[in-house]
Design goal:
Length: 375
């Protein structure tokens, strides 16, 4: 199915000019709600923005009743963008949409939103039979998937979620595993004293933290597991024994058991160091997101394999140590897949959208929604 490029570009440019950085997606939420309500659809809007300390933004869910037998599909895209994402001026030339160069483009993920809108327009204009559909627009994906974490999944009575939030060229590469992550904040409490007159009366929290960190392996732990220390802070004047130091770190891997094993090692190292110095330690563990393990026998996955093979792509399986809304969906029991929208160099001022690749992806998604490509 050929998409209407002029309409897609017009809509994309309109949306790109709506500032919607994470926690401040309210204007974008308002725009999408009005768009679908003006077309007669009932829109479910939650208050996730307020729940996460943002503005009046919220996750949106729209049901588009189908007239085809078979499993329903929920298409997903996120409303928020990264910085610098204020005052974007999009420019289109030679099949490429980009920004003037001092901001991101926001193709991530407004290209996914535009694809969903165009699919709906084409379905209505052509009268093509299609599956039962849901459109789910989440907030704050870029800053912790907080929209997906705060969505009421009882509102979504379908088990297949297809994310339009990928970068790069359309290819036969499929994800067989996405890493989960635990994030840790560790605070050592020592004892303050004068560093020049009576340091022996103090317990230096910096020394405790240094001892703990020296016992922990960071970096590549094994082929599937990584760990990284991100920030350390504390202390003041050189004549004061520091009584408090905090550091943050993370662990990523492809099973929760692998994550927990490394977290346990970090916890033990910190507790042992605190005990040796006579300090105490507080450890806060955030189960940031679960691993994402697609079921390779699921309807959603088999559909993608068949579509890509029909288009001439060779299927290759890979793993990712990144994370996104699909990790949260997968952890809630949904079967997830996804596809690029033709965006490149995302999260940079060089970001651009290749409309030819957009069209290739559009055709694959169209077939997934309007054909029974697998039994």
């Amino acid at each position: 199915m050929q998409f209407n490029q002029e309409r897609v570009l017009e809509r994309l440019i309109e949306m790109i000019k709506i500032d919607s950085v994470s926690y401040k997606e309210g204007p974008m939420t308002d725009y999408l709600q009005k768009y679908f309500e003006d077309r007669g659809y009932e829109v479910y809007r939650d208050e996730a923005g307020k729940a996460i300390g943002g503005d009046h933004s919220g996750n949106l869910l729209i049901h588009i009743g189908g007239d085809m037998e078979g499993e329903g599909i929920c298409l997903n895209a996120h409303q928020d963008t990264v910085e610098p994402g204020i005052g974007i001026e999009p420019v289109f030339e030679n099949g490429i949409l980009k920004s003037k160069g001092d901001t991101i483009l926001a193709a991530d993920d407004k290209s996914g939103i535009a694809m969903m809108m165009e699919i709906l327009d084409q379905l209505k204009e052509t009268g093509t039979p299609h599956r039962d559909l849901w459109f789910l627009f989440t907030i704050c994906e870029e800053n912790g998937m907080h929209g997906a974490k705060n969505f009421d999944y009882s509102k979504l009575p379908v088990k297949n979620i297809f994310a339009l939030d990928g970068a790069g060229k359309v290819s036969g590469r499929l994800l067989k595993s996405g890493a989960g992550k635990d994030a840790l904040e560790i605070t050592f409490h020592g004892k303050m004293a004068h560093g020049g007159i009576e340091p022996e009366k103090g317990i230096n929290a910096i020394a405790v933290a240094a001892s703990a960190i020296s016992r922990i392996k960071f970096g590549r732990i094994d082929p599937e597991t990584t760990s990284n220390i991100g920030r350390i802070e504390g202390g003041g004047a050189t004549n004061i024994v520091t009584d408090k130091v905090t550091f943050t770190c993370e662990v990523r891997s492809h099973t929760q058991e692998q994550i927990q094993a490394q977290v346990d090692l970090i916890v033990k190292a910190c507790q042992d160091a605190a005990a040796e110095f006579g300090a105490t330690v507080d450890i806060d563990i955030d189960h940031f997101c679960p691993p994402h393990k697609p079921d390779l026998n699921s309807f959603m996955h088999r559909t993608m394999v068949k579509l890509l093979q029909d288009a001439g792509y060779t299927i290759e399986y890979g793993v990712s140590n990144g994370s996104g809304d699909s990790n949260i969906f997968s952890g809630k029991g949904f079967q997830c897949s996804g596809i690029t929208t033709g965006m490149f160099d995302v999260h940079t001022t060089n970001e651009y959208l290749d409309m030819e690749e957009f069209g290739k992806a559009y055709n694959l998604v169209w077939r997934a929604l309007t054909e029974n490509v697998v039994d």
